Amino acid sequence: MSKFDCIIVGTGPAGLGAAFELIEKSSSLKVLMLDKENFSTGGLRNDCKMNFTFPIGFPEDNWTENEAESYLEKVTEILNPPIKEKHNLETYQKRAEKLGCKLINIRQSHLGTDGGLELIKELTAKLRSRNVEISLGEEVLDLQAGDKKIITNKREIFYENIIFAPGRKGFGFLQNIMSKIDVPFLDHIVDIGVRIETKESSYPIVRDYYDPKFLFPQGVRTFCTNSGAAHVVKEKYSTRDGQTFYSVNGHAFSDRKKQNGLVNFAMLKTVRLTEPLASGQGFVEMLGLQSMLLGGGQPIMQRVGDFRMGTRSKVESFNNDLYDFEPTLKGCTPGDISLAMPGRILRAIWKSMKELDTIIPGVLHPGTIMYYPEIKLYANKPTFKDGHFKVAENIYMIGDGAGTSRGITGAWASGIRAAEGVTG
Ligand SMILES: Cc1cc2nc3c(=O)[nH]c(=O)nc-3n(C[C@H](O)[C@H](O)[C@H](O)COP(=O)(O)OP(=O)(O)OC[C@H]3O[C@@H](n4cnc5c(N)ncnc54)[C@H](O)[C@@H]3O)c2cc1C
Q1: Ligand 1 mean position to 186 CA, how many Å?
Q2: Which residues form the FAD/NAD(P)-binding domain (predicted)?
Q3: Is residue 168 within 8 Å of 377, Cβ to Cβ?
Q4: Which domain holds residue 40?
């Protein structure tokens, strides 16, 4: 029966950050990485724009600015990102300030989905050459903490330490493990919003700043902007009782690929549930299912022109005529977002979109498309026993699924921090 000094569940950036740090600290450690998918490294496969400035990607409950910046130095050493230039920042910032909004200046790099795949190959080859075992298509099903053992779909494996990094899609899996080993956790913060798709000429700031981070007074922010060869995609989620819903998202290929002249980005509102404390996951599952009901099993899309007029979008709204671009997400249902989204969230997002249109005139062109829902489920808040994200003896939980990050660099940094806990 096999035994490892450290098993890492998940080969996303959090798992990779942990693996690199473990072998850096001690090359003789026996490390196994497992992923249920047949390909490795989770969210690095999507767009791969990396943000290297606090607080982007670093939840402030878990990171101080100094901590994040010092870990970011380590992340930079390994990922060696080409940082993108920015232009006219002050002009945009001044316009934003006049409205009480903020544009944050972030160090960014963008590899694109194709560039991300190349990076993954390079990183996993390096790990394998340093004797890290990577087993793909192997799903962890259960943990028997008393025996220091996990059960996968293929075998039983023993560990000395285990790091769980299963990402956002592993949110429910992590909750099951936490319940089983009595780790108290909260899951009361969620991000809900829309993804906007428009022509680059209606949102030209992307030529000056690849992924501009605006904060609006209503607790709304812009998130994950993609341009060049940009596409809206949908991600499939399962509810705890096995029903399916979709969240939209976006990515772009590198500038080596054919450009489509479109931009997409999310407008997200953070919702913090208080008394009576409800599960954030439960809340977004209901919203996800409601939009599936209204969209006939698909996400909903609506043209800004229709939304303004208070009418639903129809198939004819996407006629490639006045509105001269076609949605990049196929299989989405034209409809009425205001039927599906809670009023308070919708009002906050619409107000923020109007502010954005004042800062960058054009984004509210009638042809601009709003897709719903975009949901971020990364706010599990386990009770950690130390600063290394330890939840129980020899057990660590990191990455977006454990709420220690909200992006590639934060996930990688939380991996380093957990590995430091393992190696002491
Ligand atoms: C379309 C899209 C675009 C994105 N674009 C960006 C971007 O440009 N920049 C950015 O910073 N962030 C982006 N993100 C977010 C980013 O991907 C995440 O923040 C990041 O990947 C989180 O890292 P992680 O290691 O915590 O989880 P993940 O990267 O999700 O990795 C978790 C891994 O664990 C595996 N896993 C889950 N459960 C199990 C199990 N039970 N057994 C075995 N394996 C399991 C999964 O298969 C997965 O490979 C994007 C996300 C999406 C979906």
Answers
A1: 21
A2: 4-169
A3: yes
A4: 3-83+110-186+381-423
